[in-house]
């Protein structure tokens, strides 16, 4: 390949949030050529033995902070820890803007490795342009975001009649036991495999297998039906940021091959754990991810603590796109059986839904006055059944309310009896899910357990 004229790309990001699409350099040595921009080279990753990232080589060394911990993580969410021995013996935190494909485009004759996209959102940042080069090109700052506005229109959902049973086994007249049974953890915090420690997100797999983001144990546990002890599926060696560790995982999702995806909150990344694997690969770097969901077409969704952006990656796609641009404070997210994304806006106390293949979010329950309930409505996480009933987990109210399609008031179906550890109580719960039979599961966070509330099958006859 004839070396094209060096074009050094300086970037000034004026937009608030920019995803970074980096290319990786598999098995290449430090500083090896990896881009059609000859000012870019390969930086080996500290947390991976066999790949690096392709970045701009000439950032001033003084700008680069050493990595933290045992030299393997960065405090700033928009930096990645790499080896850069020309600057320091110790690994350094490299700004992700400088490993963007817009700065370091793939070489013309080498196929792009699209298997490990690393994206990040970051605050408005101006990159200093201290380099030994003169030619300057401004990178276009067009982002792949689709502008999305929320509307106040209510969605209308067809309600099935009580006599016909939807595929999720939940009819309009369904009722649930108010007495929960513990299916994971035993009510006492701890690190033994029969315990949990402030569990946050749950995922119910086939055969009522419960997967738990065991947040303060920095691990993910799997409890098969009737088990009295859980199995460790992700997170080894305590809190940390190497490829076998997690730091305060908040939410999880499991695909049909039992691959577990973890919102690794404290490390600002989404980790992919193959079944029985000791270590994980990073599939997305995003500031403080808090929610993760997967629809039946294996499109993955990731929400952030800040709520600023909601990311989506379709199955097989290499890139993540941002949807729900104004999905302010959407934190925990879930997917219903029809592929709709349900999110909660904590700030405005709204439950929102985005139907499959649409871009708009609609309110389906909110905290305005007409939704009056005592104490006042305080959604944290929500799910929707196939008949359009909304189930809202109200963390501070220690209850679940059920809302008919377009209803302006909800009914308490679980809890509502103050915080506590009795079978009919929960204590600051974080997540809610169904299994295939229509039973409801609650991550009962401050009781360090997962509770199952069985559907009364006769209520749907
Ligand atoms: C964003 O959402 C908030 C609350 O949900 C709303 O008040 C505001 O008007 C929305 N902004 C845009 C640009 O849609
Ligand atoms: C949980 O299990 C531990 C033993 O691992 C036991 O000491 C504790 O009493 C149990 N707690 C409950 C509520 O069963
Ligand atoms: C679910 O249980 C059935 C019957 O016991 C078994 O054949 C199947 O492998 C189980 N599936 C999973 C994912 O555990
Ligand atoms: C779980 O326990 C219930 C009640 O003890 C029993 O009927 C059921 O067969 C058990 N299921 C499995 C998968 O062990
Ligand atoms: C990560 O660190 C933990 C704790 O030091 C260690 O047990 C584990 O082997 C490390 N994993 C890798 C892949 O280095
Ligand atoms: C959504 O879009 C995907 C890809 O374009 C398509 O395959 C699928 O059928 C669509 N689903 C619905 C419900 O429209």
Automatic annotation (TrEMBL):
SUPFAM superfamilies named among the record's database cross-references: NHL repeat
Pfam families: NHL
Descriptive protein name: Uncharacterized protein
Ranges of the NHL repeats in the UniProt entry: 420-456
Signal sequence region: 1-22
CDD domains: NHL
Residue ranges of coiled coil: none
InterPro entries reported in the protein's UniProt record: 6-blade_b-propeller_TolB-like, NHL_repeat, TRIM-NHL_E3_ligases
Keywords: Repeat, Signal
Species classification: Eukaryota, Metazoa, Spiralia, Gnathifera, Rotifera
